[in-house]
Sequence to fold (329 residues):
Amino acid sequence: MKALLPFLAVVFLVLLVIAGVKAAGLYFVFGVLVPYAAAAVFLLGFVYRVVKWGKTPVPFHIPTTCGQQKSLPWIKPNGIENPSGTGGVVIRMLLEVFLFRSLFKNRKTKMKGEYLTYAWAPWLWLSGMAFHWSFLFIVIRHLRFFFQSVPVPVQAIEHLDSILNWGVPALYITDVIFLAAVTYLFLRRVTLSQVKAITLPADFFPLFLLFGIGASGVLMRYYTRVDVVGVKELVMGLVSLHPAVVSGIGTIFYIHLFLISTLFAYFPWSKLVHAGGVFLSPTRNLSNNSRVVRHVNPWSYPVKVHTYEEYEDDFREKMKMAGVPVERE
Ligand code: HEM
Fold:
């Protein structure tokens, strides 16, 4: 049931495009207005989120620490698990952003006889890496629509991606990896009982959306074919701020574009914004130097305290009457 609503939402989006483009001929709305609106919502939303995070005070260093902190010279510190300076933090962030290092260390607990043991659980890490890296490669490849002459690195990636030379047009390896990874990420949410229990409809929606984007892209490239020259003309018009309706591009392209627009507009308000959040996460981007630097809460103000001595002075007689021992007679 948790999956049904998001699934129907994506089906509704697809039907909306079919009705709008194929039946009502609203090419300007779906080819120009919607992408611009989505780009604006994405940009403003992302800036809003980052500014809000940036304004949140972090008075203490609160890094996640899993290794030995730098302390006495004869105790070996772990500079990446528990970085004490900026260099270590940068390495830790790079490993996190490009290799999802903390996810790699994911373990699952299970009983082995009477003992509780920890087993390596690489599948989430593997599928996460497969998904994100193939997504990146696909997006880079798409830059061919955004430049008049295709940049050499984009050509190189295209060449590498289709190196198997299977079929006409040649199959891109990342297309297969992308769809397989999204499918796995969906299946684990419906088959693993613990994951199922904590899954929300908001976890399924982006998965269906991404699958819809991938599937419509694959349909366009390998089956129905669209006028790629027309697509490039439309995209160049959009990015040069001289938008023009281009006729003759199939409805499947507008479905692709509308799902992407939805993804972008949805991005800043959803869990997907972790792509920006990882850089502003205090548990990741701070060093652990609490044995070197005394961090004083900047909001600390002089508090009028009532010491034990004063307390005893106030209540000494009553304490003695009640048989409570006192420090001074
Ligand atoms: C979130 C970003 C996007 C993703 C994940 C995505 C995904 C895909 C995938 C998996 C394919 C299959 C073939 C291939 O890999 O090249 C594809 C094809 C295609 N995409 Fe996208 N796409 C994205 C953005 C866009 C945008 C912004 C446009 C243009 C406005 C676009 C236009 C096309 C076209 C025209 C094809 C067919 C290419 C061909 O026939 O060679 N896509 N897309």
Remarks:
- The two ends are 73 Å apart (CA to CA).
